[in-house]
Specification:
The chain has about 150 residues and is α+β, with helices and mostly antiparallel strands. The protein is about 30% helix and about 20% strand. About 25% of the residues are buried. The mean pLDDT is about 95. It binds zinc ion.
Length: about 150
C-alpha cells in the first residue's frame, strides 16, 4: 500500500474485501469514557458494483429512520460517496452481533415499507430522487447473503 493516510478507509485495501459485509472501522473514546463505534456496512463489491442514487438515497432514509427502532445510540447513518455502502456510527455500543441483528431487522422493515419516509421537499434535499423498489431490491440482496456479513475479507 501507499503511505498511511488520515482516513481509516483510505488505508483499507478495497481489492481485498468481499462484500456484502459489516466491518468495525474504528472506536474513538472521548475524555469522559464514551465510545464512538463506526461501522462500514458494505452492500456492493468495490469497483465492481454500486448502488444507483435513487435506490441508495431511499435506503439511506429507511436505514436512518428504521434502525432507531431496533437499537439505541445511533449517531448517524451516512452513504459512501462511492455508492457501495453506508457508514453506521454508534455511541457506546460495542456488540457487533447485535449490530448485525439490528441491521437485519431494519432491512426487513425496508422490505415491508409502503413508502420512503421523509421523501418530500419539506424533509429532504432531493425529494425527486428516490426509489422504494430499488431500495427493496438492495435489501433483498443484502438479506439473502446475511450469513456472509461477518466475513470482511475474501
Ligand atoms: Zn433525502
Amino acid at each position: 500500500m501507499t503511505k498511511k493516510m488520515n482516513v481509516e478507509s483510505f488505508n483499507l485495501d478495497h481489492t481485498q474485501v468481499k462484500a456484502p459485509y459489516v466491518r468495525l472501522v474504528s472506536v474513538i473514546e472521548g475524555p469522559h469514557g464514551d465510545k464512538i463505534h463506526k461501522y462500514d456496512v458494505r452492500f456492493c463489491q468495490p469497483n465492481q458494483q454500486h448502488m444507483e442514487m435513487p435506490a441508495l438515497h431511499s435506503m439511506e432514509h429507511m436505514l436512518a429512520e428504521f434502525i432507531r427502532n431496533h437499537m439505541d445510540g445511533v449517531i448517524d447513518v451516512g452513504p459512501m460517496g462511492c455508492q457501495t455502502g453506508f457508514y453506521l456510527t454508534l455511541l457506546n455500543h460495542d456488540d457487533y452481533l447485535e449490530v448485525l441483528s439490528a441491521l437485519e431487522a431494519t432491512l426487513q422493515d425496508v422490505l415491508t415499507a409502503t413508502e420512503v419516509p421523509a421523501a418530500n421537499e419539506t424533509q429532504c434535499g432531493w425529494a425527486a430522487s428516490h426509489s422504494l423498489a430499488g431500495a427493496q431490491a438492495l435489501a433483498r440482496e443484502m438479506l439473502d447473503r446475511r450469513a456472509e456479513w461477518n466475513q470482511v475479507f475474501a
